[in-house]
Amino acid sequence: MRFCEVFNHYLSLLEISYPAFARHSGLSVSSVRRYKNGESEPAADSGQVEKIADGICSLAQEKQLSLQKSDVLAQLYGSLKNNLAIAYSAYVANLNMLIKQLDIRVTVLAKALSFDPSYISKILAGQRKPAHIADFTQRVGSFVSRNCTDEQHIRNLAALVGCETEDIQNPRERCTAIISWLGSNTEKKSHPISGFLDKMESFHLDDFIQAIHFNDIKLPTVPFQLPGTKHYYGIQEMMESELDFMKATVVSKSMQDCILYSDMPMEEMAKDPDFPKKWMFGRAMMLKKGLCLHIIHDVNRPFHEMMLGLESYIPMYMTGQISPYYLPVSQGGVFTHLLNVSGAAALEGNAVAGHQATGKYTLYKGKEDVRHFRTRAEHLLKKAEPLMDIYRSDRKEEFAAQMEQLWRAGSRHVVNCSLPLYTISAALLEQILDRVPLSESEKEQIRKYRSDSLASAERLLSENKVALVLPELSEKQFAETPLNLALSELFIETDVPYRYEEYLAHREQTAAFARAFPNLHLEWETKPPFRNISYTVIGNSHVIVSKNKYPTIHFVIHHRKMVQAFNNFIPPLDDLN
Known about the structure:
Elements: H1 3-14, H2 18-25, H3 29-37, H4 48-62, H5 69-79, H6 88-101, H7 106-113, H8 117-124, H9 133-147, H10 151-161, H11 171-182, H12 192-202, H13 205-211, E1 229-233, H14 234-251, E2 258-262, H15 267-270, H16 275-289, E3 293-297, H17 303-317, E4 322-326, E5 335-341, E6 346-352, E7 360-364, H18 367-383, E8 385-386, E9 388-391, H19 396-406, E10 412-415, H20 426-433, H21 440-461, E11 466-471, H22 475-480, H23 500-516, E12 520-525, E13 533-538, E14 542-547, E15 553-557, H24 560-569
Parallel strand pairs: 2-3, 3-4, 10-11, 11-12
Antiparallel strand pairs: 1-7, 2-5, 4-8, 5-6, 6-7, 9-15, 10-13, 13-14, 14-15
């Protein structure tokens, strides 16, 4: 028997669900779910098997069932003898990473492997396992190696599997490297989405402003002397051209919005330890001046590189002066381009992909040149689509209207860092509000928000499934990091803290609310990953990432790649029943 079969036998014998068993045994719900579904098995020397056996035996004792721990361990360890050489969860994670890094479309992969696209999608979601995993892996490796032929893709593959580009120059070498890496039992621990959320969680705008001495930045008053046109060649001079463009923009009198686009690879620039600091300082000066930046991101990069780029922009997103866009159509990959335009300068350049050292970049300051390139940049912006909508307190009404629409948008997976306000009783809410230093108008906003969101939640749950993950904190955990009312949608940054007994009461009210709505799957997380970030994944269409304070800000993400990445970051709804 397989491990999952033995484990499910004991769950059935004990008449207990896997989330309840996880809480009882001290294991994470996600790990127990994977054991139950056969997606992974615990390593024999990890201590997990011992915890599972202890949980089974203690529950058996409560139910007056006669089970000996030695017998349970023998059954569990015996089932591991036929374990796969790899953990299936690691295999699935690696397969997803491979597809994202090389931007492989599932429909194309499915056609090449002679599978139905839905079957491949279920494998990628961890819901299905190939009947002959070795043959499946061989076919994936062959397909990818044949289609991974340009220099950029080969570099991306080398970075992913941990080898040099020289080692995978022909299809046979690439196929061998892919098969070896997929079966390496080494999962990429740093999921790009996790890194993005971690960066948002830890970011504090006031600390950032202080760290870069933003309030001490003195905008130059002496005109920046550059010829009307200046040419730059190669990577080092390309970086110089970026800095010169920002200087020319900052010292000018123009307050015209800036349009910024680049699909240049970032690896070479990142090798210079000083350039990122100078670049960030230049962007900070542009924001200090009060300029609005329309940034067209290149999302056709490898997914991890795209997310790293977005992480670097988080400090600037928090200012509310950034509008991010992307081009929905790939630019072909033969040439790479750079086009930055402000009211005073334009920077334009290109290179053959993979040969930035032979690229040429030109900075223009003449009025006719700047007007010409602004027209080109505006045409480019019209072809772009919003990557995400960013809402700070100055866009409060727009965000409320957006949320009202999204409350009607279908099934969703929600991970909250506090308890939802729509499940709290009016009496408990008043008890909390009575002792906090908020104005009466703010308190009335909170009351109305609770009432409106309750009506919206009831309407949503009457037709759609919702998976809701909430923090279940011990008294010690709560004392170390108390919870506050979830008020980010109201842009109220004043802390409204629970007392522990109030938190317990609201937790019970939330559980009762869930029992009243069969479409609501409630999962309690004893080790919540975020304390200042919540996010909602709505089907395959939207992701809402909300930061409670420092500052309060909401990102409504539309881009297909990012939405899919969030869907792969969390268990699918069908797996939570």
